[in-house]
Amino acid sequence: MPRRSQVVLEPRKSPVQARSTATVEAILDATLQVLLHVGKERLTTTRVALRAGVSVGTLYQYFPNKSALLQAVLKRHLAEITETVELVCREQEGKTLRQMVTALITAFLQAKMRNAKTSATLYSVSSDVDGAKIAQQMGTRSNKAISRMLSTTCEPLTTDPQLIASMLQAAMVGVSRNLLESSAPDKQLGVLHRELIFVACAYMDACCARGSAPSAGAIGDGEKIPPSGMPEGARKNAVKRIHAPVQ
């Protein structure tokens, strides 16, 4: 059987001069505007060029097709979020763990949900333009920034900073995905933001040498977490008692 031709996603060339950069930015802005207005199926290079105020020929100098346009817009969006994470991580170096994760989560969710419709729309097309690969690349950058920030804390860690960073990223991405798939993300943002900080701070306490994992922190309806320092047998019994059905 003949092989299916692979769609070219990479831009034809990168802008060098300021004027070229401005042209590419105008094309990407127009791509996003057309995408939001008419959707992925009705988006065409002709519509984008008209919206950007450039000729189709000029557009094709940089992008071979609409898939390349969509990928470039997605990459720019995720890069902006990654740069926000990198900035807040630099700003929080030397702070306490709780201060770090509170600032990190707040900055991430603000960047991700600044325009919920844009984020949700790009999320919906990401699988069509190799979005997983882009997300992985940006995730690696974020992991390095978060790990570096954690290593500067004034509190002694008992867990590898890179592992902590990966756990925090997984939690943040999970919450943001929940929001983007929600029919009313703006209504849920405040609650999920607050709860994610609560969870992250408890995790930071557990990763800290001071051993302040929430020994009496509420989970669910008044349930308690058994102290992490208790013997394993006693801890298992405590867990059983916590989850035992009420008679």
Strand and helix map with partners:
Elements: H1 18-38, H2 45-52, H3 56-62, H4 66-91, H5 97-113, H6 116-125, H7 131-150, H8 161-180, H9 185-207, E1 218-219, E2 223-224, H10 232-243
Antiparallel strand pairs: 1-2
Helix pairs in contact: 1-2, 1-4, 2-3, 4-5, 4-6, 4-7, 5-8, 5-9, 7-8, 8-9
Structural commentary:
The protein is mainly alpha-helical. The chain folds into three domains: 57 residues, Homeodomain-like (Arc Repressor Mutant, subunit A, Orthogonal Bundle); 137 residues, Tetracycline Repressor, domain 2 (Orthogonal Bundle); 34 residues, no CATH class. It contains ten helices and two strands, in the order αααααααααββα. A two-stranded antiparallel ribbon has the order 1-2. Helix 1 packs across helix 4 and helix 8 runs antiparallel to helix 9. The longest helix is centred in the N-terminal third of the chain and has 26 residues. The protein is elongated. The N and C termini lie far apart (66 Å). The N terminus and C terminus are likely disordered.
Write down the overall geometry: elongated
Oligomer description = single chain
Number of domains: 3
Order of helices and strands: HHHHHHHHHEEH
Rg over C-alpha atoms, rounded to the nearest angstrom:
23 Å
Mean pLDDT: 84
CATH T-level fold name of the largest domain: Tetracycline Repressor, domain 2
